[in-house]
Design brief:
The chain has a single domain (2-121), classed as Rossmann fold, CATH 3.40.50. The protein has 5 helices and 5 strands. The chain has helices at 9-15, 19-31, 54-61, 72-75, 91-102; strands at residues 2-4, 40-42, 65-67, 79-87, 107-115. The strands form 2 sheets. The chain has a 3-stranded parallel β-sheet with strand order 1-4-5, sandwiched between helices. A two-stranded antiparallel ribbon has the order 2-3. α5 (91-102) links the parallel β4 (79-87) and β5. The termini are far apart.
């Protein structure tokens, strides 16, 4: 199943869309893999990750995601493709993957539109 990284409801209200959800829907349409937007929930709003260190980002998203008990049976033994729009340090997708695995997913793979790298790691 394809699961997008969820936004806090306040952020979704401000933006009017979830980039990860849009990417997940299109990936589902192109691959035929079922789209499962309700599996993962954001249970705690977090501050913006912009400007935070790797350690601060991990702390910021810790405990922010959960799997609703009603979805645990569907998740048990499943392969999950977790989709986010941008990965910077991996803190968000790591927090999501841990929750999905703890709830019974057999595996979690991650797909993102963009990966931020350190400027010193980029050679032109």
């Amino acid at each position: 199943m394809i699961v997008p990284v969820p936004l806090a409801w306040t952020r979704l209200l401000r933006r009017q869309f979830n980039q990860a959800a849009i990417l997940a829907q299109e990936t589902s349409r192109l691959t035929g893999i079922p789209y499962a937007p309700g599996i993962l929930k954001r249970v705690r709003a977090t501050r913006s990750q912009v400007g935070l260190t790797r350690l601060e980002r991990g702390r910021n998203v810790s405990g922010s995601f959960a799997v609703a008990p009603r979805h645990r049976a569907r998740l048990r033994g499943a392969s999950v493709l977790l989709i986010d729009d941008v990965i910077t340090t991996g803190a968000t997708v790591s927090a999501c993957a841990r929750v999905l695995l703890a709830a019974g997913a057999a595996r979690v793979d991650v797909l993102a539109l963009a990966l931020v790298t350190e400027p010193s790691a980029v050679t032109l």
